Structures are given as C-alpha cells and as structure tokens.
Amino acid sequence: MARKKLTNSQIVCILLLWGFLSYLLLAYSETIDFRVVFILAASAIIVFVPIYKQRRRP
Questions:
Q1: How far is CA 40 from CA 1, 3, 58, in A?
Q2: Residues 25, 21: Cα–Cα separation, whole Å
Q3: Nearest to 6 by CA among 50, 44, 43
Q4: Over the stretch 32-57, which tens digit does the pLDDT of each residue have?
Q5: CA dihedral 21, 24, 25, 31 (to 10 degrees)
Q6: Would you kindly state where each structural domain of the chain is located, as residue ranges?
Q7: 17: how many CB neighbours lie within 10 A of its CB?
Q8: What is the DSSP letter of 29?
C-alpha cells in the first residue's frame, strides 16, 4: 500500500511541533548531558529522514 504524499503545510506543522518539543526538552532539562543529546538526535532522525526521502522523490 502506497503512502500518501505529505503536503507542505503538513511538513511545516511536523517541523514546528518537533522544534517546540525540542525546545521544551532543552529548556526544562536540568543539565544537557548525553541522554538529552541522544534523544534530540534520535528524534531528529525519526522526523527528518522520512520527510527527506519523500521530498527527494520526483
């Protein structure tokens, strides 16, 4: 079953939500240690790779 293409507005909403949640994580964490950096990197991969793959296709 083929996936539906994301529209530009959906992509913007996803990126803004990810940015807001990342800001909350950084703002309310007591220290920025490996755990926080790992969470941000893992969530960035989960969010940005599917968007990049979809936008790269013609």
A1: 31, 26, 29
A2: 6
A3: 50
A4: 999 999 999 999 999 999 999 988 87
A5: 160
A6: 8-56
A7: 11
A8: -
